[in-house]
Amino acid sequence: MPLLSLYRNLYFDIQPGHARRPATAIRWSEDLPKKWQSQVVAPLYFDHYIEYQIAAERILGYDEDDTPCFCTFSHVQAEAGPDRSTWAESLKAWRMRDGRWLIYRVIVRGGQVNRGRGFYVLGNAMPR
Q: Which contiguous run of DSSP H or E holds residue 19?
């Protein structure tokens, strides 16, 4: 399996650029711990952006007030050279009802997917 495919959020089925997606098209609650599910704002629709020059994508979910309440992005950077180091990051974030953001980040270095570490943090703003 190509290394690039290991880091994608599995939404690369559209052309590069921007597309609007319905709530049923995105698995926005995947990786959301059960104990936090009742405390996050559920998105109604999504804007999906794909970078066509590098391996990166971003999805923003919006609530009934057109305010972002979910975001996810993934990015892969493979460097040329003798060591061919690869770095990848995936992030998902959910806005909680109290205004804070629950953020789940996974970082993989050296192309070793099985050694990628994920962790949760709380933040005061949506990750950019």
A: strand 17-22
